[in-house]
């Protein structure tokens, strides 16, 4: 960020804008690249992972939740108020089924009344996190990032995860505390192959959040000192683990001891005696899924808990995005020129005209770079008027060159 002296409003450079735009474009390409933008995904059944949307116009809050595929968001719900759900696993497109009343899908009308295998949440009404708020939230003034749980696939504010958010969170998978408690055997894995819980203050938390946490801790200590027999004191053990946490620990131990075969990796982890606090969301180290035990007994545990997808490395959002990127790169290499307006235009010109255009483009790029370099050297901010002035100069030079090349017969 840079600003002229005396200016209160912070500004960004043109390079910053271009880099951010490229990053957003790459992210969108990764998310959408794995989904078909022309065909409804319904015939494919419950798609392993796809980009999904919810239509607030057709299925508003108070009605039945429903999700639509990428193609239907373009063809059937153009101009509607849509919620972008990013990606979700094992979902079948609802567009045009009974949840949409008289509306029919324009791409694939022959659908069942409902998709009983779909799972829904408040996300389908544009609400997220434990705070049940929209994103972006016009009433939330605290800058914070949203992180998706890989189990329930809900999105959470970093400050509402009950733990410190580690650095490079985009490279890690997260399971929220609620989902950890529903699958207590995962706490045993968390003690060995997850990011260790941190105690420092998270950068994403606002000062007010930190202040409240400190005040709450001091208040709890005050209650304990003044009233040794208070519920707070009875709840807390000598090692600081609450009765609720102890219950989760017992469940985790029980799930790891009952019915496990010899040589089970989960049993070995439990036998090591290593443990961690059963509190807050858990961030997992890279490639952690490859370290999960896949013996026959553990597979039953995953299935019973509804998390058998954890054994599939291709289930991850990263794998989906990489597949989308690879697909788009292959299309570009194999014939994307026909879809690129610039390349299509060049293909319709002869060789001399193509060279002239390329020469003009390179000249313009060089002149624009030199023009902007002067601003950088002087520490000035580039304004829209400056850019407009540059292209006006370009047009003026072009007209002068064109006029100089005209010849008239007397």
UniProtKB/TrEMBL annotation:
Alphabetized UniProt keyword annotations: Isopeptide bond, Metal-binding, Phosphoprotein, Transferase, Ubl conjugation, Ubl conjugation pathway, Zinc, Zinc-finger
Gene Ontology CC: one annotated term: cytoplasm
Zn finger (UBR-type) location: 38-110
Top-rank taxon, per record: Eukaryota
The UBR-type domain, residue ranges: 38-110
Catalytic activity as recorded in UniProt: S-ubiquitinyl-[E2 ubiquitin-conjugating enzyme]-L-cysteine + [acceptor protein]-L-lysine = [E2 ubiquitin-conjugating enzyme]-L-cysteine + N(6)-ubiquitinyl-[acceptor protein]-L-lysine
Keyword RNA-binding applies: no
InterPro entries: UBR7, UBR7-like_UBR-box, Znf_FYVE_PHD, Znf_RING/FYVE/PHD, Znf_UBR
EC number: 2.3.2.27
Enzyme type, top EC level: transferase
A Gene Ontology molecular function term of the record: zinc ion binding
Keyword DNA-binding: no
Skewed-composition ranges (Basic and acidic residues): 215-237
Coiled coil residues, start to end: none
Region feature Disordered, mapped onto this chain: 215-251
Pathway(s): Protein modification; protein ubiquitination
PANTHER family documented for this protein: E3 UBIQUITIN-PROTEIN LIGASE UBR7
Job of this protein: E3 ubiquitin-protein ligase which is a component of the N-end rule pathway. Recognizes and binds to proteins bearing specific N-terminal residues that are destabilizing according to the N-end rule, leading to their ubiquitination and subsequent degradation.
Protein name, as recorded: Putative E3 ubiquitin-protein ligase UBR7
Organism of origin: Sinocyclocheilus anshuiensis
Lineage: Eukaryota, Metazoa, Chordata, Craniata, Vertebrata
